[in-house]
Write a structure and sequence with these properties.
The structure is a homodimer.
Chain A lengths: L16 H20 L3 E2 L5 E3 H4 L4 H6 L3 E3 L4 H4 L8 H8 E5 L4 H10 L8 E10 L11 E10 L5 H17 L3 E7 H10 L6 H25 L4 H11 L5 H11 L3 H20 L4 E4 L13 E7 L8 E6 L13 E6 L1 H10 L13 E3 L4 H16 L4 E3 L6 H10 L4 E4 L2 H6 L1 E6 L5 E5 H10 L1
Parallel strand pairs in A: 1-5, 7-8, 12-13, 12-14
Antiparallel strand pairs in A: 2-4, 3-4, 5-6, 6-11, 7-9, 9-10, 10-11, 14-15, 15-16
């Protein structure tokens, strides 16, 4: 047999026990909050039909889909000779692909199971997704998404609950964040007001750069992007807008006299009113430059930034009015956010905020002396485990030095010895590996001692 | 845009909230026991290099691997024109495949990370695997495996711990099971003793059929499989062996005078001695017909049968002496078992043994009256959630009938009303949906009432 030097595909990762417990800490925290807000878990298959995935993420997204080769004699099943064009050929020999995000599978799920679902439907989903992106620092080809969405209601109460969830998750994780909020209708209103509906992105980018490069440079850039002098002139009051959140909304309300803009302002005011009334600890701000996923969102837009770490957005989302329409179910509005587990992991690592008590290893290592001592040790361990204490038995009657070195490497809190002396006395000798303190105790007392630690 | 009728690839499944909570109940139970025994979680990527996967599962297994088409212009990257043979062509255009089980990725993990791992290494892994099997009832193309393995020790203490884990998991799940135990060395010893080393499978199948078809038919079948008269004659004492476990082991010990057979008997005796000493509730039995994965196991073989449901094995495993050898790390012995989550799910469903208290939905639905009542309701809910109670707010101020129908469909335990009366009194009206009992209470009292339910 040829020996294979082991490696994994680029852009993918193995997770060690130490990484797993930290990742699970993040997932468990997020899940607990989702459940508290009445969201329910679902899972969808890793593979979806290509017909479900293609055309949903733009041309760039289509290129980033991992396709799965049809099983069996795929060349014969292709029917016609393969196209010389790889894109076309791929569709002759692949019917399935790996899921690219959790939003499209969710929309597919809602439509496919509409007769089983009660609307409004609140679901969360925590599963990996795959993208054939060029791997780089912090960007992987397989990564988890943690999505929470509510479909079947237009109410801004849904947005308010998502804001509360952001507040609660990051309070529990002890990460100081700012939630930036915008509204797609306001952006559409601005573009309409200045007569430049095709230039929403250019306009938001310009607003974003104002502080850095100044008004004149912004106007020059807008001109170079093809905005008319008239549009640029009309944009000036928005660029020059000053004040706090409510003052900005008041100014916008004077400027954006179109229907879509007014609707967007009203939605923002309602949402901020909920936030103010609830008295959240979370820092929120109106950010008119926020424009993520323009092709897709139709109302509120959210993005969360960590305040104490230089890193991109760690959570984001928004409202989409017709996501299920692509699968034939019209008129179902939804809103959702996605927590970026990998970036949250990086933030917690940089801030050293993972709780000390989460650990991958057992609490007590029982030494192994073989023979009758081994049987006695196994019986004692069974009592410890019955009390819910995670224990490990060294499997071989190896030299004590080797066994203790193992306990050290594994960061065991305690080691336990059940030798002949202990066996005859019905005791166990427990050593606290932090303090070095050592006691021979009846088993029940030893269990209480360890349980308290 | 073309509207896609939504569907998922055959052999795959969506999991609804109701299914998810039941599946998570199984996974959480298994994980908790694994942790209690000092096993630590790892995860590996869904995709592995084909060089890692190919040749590890036999020719049949190779055919069942899902291969992932190389990204980009895969035809040009293939270098040479594609072979007209699909198997060969697939290797020109695919470098990666979906993982087929968790054992080979685990072996790859151990070798790849050997410098970071402390031996003996105890890991568990709960992740989906993919097989291009023909889908049928109870057989899926994507399904979860729950594997627990220990590598780096030959000690039968490891086998004993796995038996304890089986005992504990099925005790917690309240499934009445029998653990069948055999040893590959005993099977090898039998085959050697009768001079039919090539016919281990035929011999075990024959032993298995003895009760059903009788001795004469068994001997006829062995003859038809090509066993010599001499071999069949030598097998008779084993076929005619009577008695309980220890009597059978004693008989075997007289018959199997070869080294491998004696070693196997000794291993079985040691393992059963551990089991007897520990006084497990679990029913265990020596089953000489158990022969799963012969090509792969080298010592103990395990299989768990549910006693009260007609279904195949729900858990299985064994010892393998050189799994990491295929990746260049020789001499590392391991033993592990795999819990079949899908079959355990079916058993729990058939026996109606899922705990009643596990539920997908929130506990309380708060009605929505809009306006100031809505704000008051949101503040009251925040207090409930602070107390850890999962609550749901109906997002729209819809007709009460519609909101209550929703509460009914979602099996809410309570509904709560915070209207004008309640708001003015600082109260909430709580209705127990089971008893119909309804009370208007101060918020703190309502929280205690619901928390107790």
């Amino acid at each position: 047999m040829v020996i294979t030097k082991p490696s994994i595909p680029k852009g993918t990762r193995d997770f060690s026990p130490a990484e797993m417990v930290r990742r699970n800490y993040i997932f468990d925290t997020i899940k607990a909050v989702f459940a508290l807000y009445g969201f329910m878990p679902i899972e969808t298959p890793a593979t979806e039909n290509l017909s479900t995935l293609l055309g949903k993420y733009g041309d760039e997204g289509d290129k980033l889909l991992f396709k799965i080769l049809n099983s069996g004699d795929f060349l014969t099943s292709a029917g016609a000779p393969l196209s010389a064009n790889s894109d076309k050929a791929s569709l002759q020999i692949c019917e399935k692909g790996l899921r690219y995000d959790l939003t499209v599978p969710f929309a597919r799920f809602v439509v496919q199971h509409q007769s089983e679902i009660t609307l409004p439907f609140k679901r969360y989903q925590i599963q990996p997704v795959w993208r054939a992106d060029r791997p780089q620092k912090g960007r992987y080809r397989e990564f988890y998404q943690c999505d929470v969405d509510m479909v079947g209601s237009n109410s801004l109460v849904c947005e308010a609950e998502l804001v509360q969830i952001v507040d609660e998750v990051f309070r529990r994780l002890d990460i100081n964040v700012t939630l930036k909020i915008n509204n797609r209708k306001v952006l559409a209103g601005i573009a309409e007001a200045i007569g430049a509906a095709d230039h929403i992105v250019d306009v938001t980018v310009a607003i974003d750069k104002l502080e850095k490069i100044g008004l004149e440079n912004v106007n020059a850039e807008l001109q170079s992007k093809g905005l008319s002098d008239d549009a640029i002139a009309k944009l000036q009051p928005i660029l020059l807008m000053k004040g706090d959140r409510d003052e900005k909304l008041a100014s916008l309300s004077n400027i954006l006299t179109n229907e879509v803009g007014q609707k967007g302002i009203e939605e923002l005011r309602t949402l901020f009113a909920y936030i103010d009334a609830l008295g959240l600890e979370l820092k929120t701000e109106l950010d008119l430059t926020l424009a993520r996923g323009l092709n897709y969102y139709t109302g509120a837009i959210f993005e969360v930034k960590a305040n104490d770490v230089e890193i991109g957005s760690i959570t984001g989302g928004g409202r989409y009015d017709d996501l299920t329409g692509i699968f034939g179910l019209k008129g179902l509005s939804g809103v959702g956010i996605s927590f970026g587990a990998d970036r949250i992991y990086d933030v917690l690592t940089q801030l050293d905020k993972f709780p000390k008590q989460i650990a991958a290893q057992a609490k007590v290592l029982f030494a192994n002396f073989g023979g009758d001592d081994e049987i006695y040790t196994m019986k004692v361990i069974a009592q410890f485990r019955k009390a819910g204490i995670c224990c490990d038995l060294y499997p071989d009657a190896a030299k004590m030095k080797k066994q203790m070195a193992f306990a050290d490497k594994q960061n065991m809190l305690f080691t336990a010895i059940c030798g002949e002396t202990e066996r005859n006395a019905g005791q166990v000798t427990i050593k606290n590996m932090t303090t070095g303190e050592q006691n021979s105790l009846p088993v029940a007392e030893a269990i209480s001692l360890v349980a308290k630690a």
